[in-house]
Amino acid sequence: MFSPETIAKIGSLTSDALSAVQAEIRVESKLVALPEGIGLHSLEKFAPGRYRFRGAFATGSLYDFGDYVKEKAEPGAIVAVDPKDLSAVATLNLGTTNNPGHADSRATLKIDKSAAYAALLQIDGKKLNQQDAAEWLEDWAAYVDGATATDSSELSCKQAVAAIRRITIEAARKIDSDQSQLGSTRSTLEAIEAKSSAGLMPAVIHFACKPADGFMTRSFSLRVSVITSEKPQIVLRIAGLDGIREEIGNEFRGLISSAVGDSAGVLIGSFAP
Question: What is the C-alpha separation between 224 and 230, in angstroms, rounded?
Answer without folding.
Answer: 18
